[in-house]
Amino acid sequence: MDDEAEARGLRGLFADAHPEVDVIGEASNISEARRSDAELKPDLVFWT
Is the N or C terminus of the chain more exposed, i.e. has fewer CB atoms within 10 Å? Predict the structure, then answer.
């Protein structure tokens, strides 16, 4: 999760390089991140 658009773009590059990783959500602030985490229940969260 990241609140900076540039960092989220870099996350996209990482995901493209690692097709075994499924990106299931992204958030632009901590409130969205908490809601997404509760709703999606991811196995792993990248905070940048």
Answer: C
pLDDT at 34: 92
Over the chain, what is the mean pLDDT? Answer: 82
Dist. CA 25–CA 32, nearest whole Å: 10
The enclosing H or E element of 20 equals: none
CB of 29 closer than 8 Å to CB of 3: yes
In tens, the pLDDT along 1-48 reads 555 677 767 777 887 888 888 888 888 888 998 999 999 999 988 776
Give dist(CA 19, CA 14) in Å, integer: 9
